[in-house]
Design a protein that fits this description.
Elements (H helix, E strand, L loop, with lengths): L1 E7 L5 H14 L4 E7 L10 H14 L6 E11 L2 H13 L4 E6 L7 H6 L2 E4 L7 H19 L8
Parallel strand pairs: 1-2, 1-4, 3-4, 3-5
Catalytic activity: pseudouridine(1915) in 23S rRNA + S-adenosyl-L-methionine = N(3)-methylpseudouridine(1915) in 23S rRNA + S-adenosyl-L-homocysteine + H(+)
Function: Specifically methylates the pseudouridine at position 1915 (m3Psi1915) in 23S rRNA.
Organism: Sediminicola luteus
Length: 157
């Protein structure tokens, strides 16, 4: 299985980008992983929230393949412990999924079309985090999940 993380907008913080890159490199020992950044939508001041979500949705759809399993990071998604998340990924791999695409949406969430196409929603917390921080958290949790699956000492009970 390959995991693709899609995110709207670039990371402004070089410190965060360095940490994200570190976990991306670590992940390569376990799985094919790709971080794909969708450029910020231009002229958002002239767009309503719905229009902005629709434009972001169009950009997301352009990056999907017909066989992709689409999972949204969403505040109303299912929350997992790290061990539960590792089991979730293992089940996806056992199901023979070729590519799972995890999407971090824009500031207003996702368009209806994206919600309809999604096969799952995950939540990292009930708290609100910046979209830039979420990138680091999800990449680290994917890495942690694979160390759990391999019984490596990164994760402690």
């Amino acid at each position: 299985m390959m995991i693709k993380l899609l995110a709207i907008g670039k990371t402004d913080s070089t410190h965060l980008q360095e940490l994200i890159s570190e976990y991306e490199q670590r992940l390569k020992h376990y799985i094919k992983f790709e971080l794909d950044i969708i450029p910020d939508i231009k002229n958002v001041k002239n767009l309503s929230e719905v229009q902005q979500k629709e434009k972001e949705g169009e950009a997301i759809l352009k990056r999907l393949q017909p066989t992709d399993v689409l999972v949204l990071l969403d505040e109303h998604g299912k929350q997992h412990t790290s061990i539960e998340f590792s089991n979730y990924l293992q089940k996806k791999m056992n199901a023979g999924i070729k590519r799972m695409v995890i999407v971090i949406g824009g500031p207003y969430g996702f368009s209806e079309e994206i919600y309809q196409k999604a096969q799952g929603k995950l939540s990292l917390s009930k708290m609100t985090f910046s979209h830039q921080m979420v990138r680091l958290f999800i990449v680290e949790q994917i890495y942690r999940a694979f160390t759990i699956l391999k019984n490596e000492p990164y994760h402690h009970q």
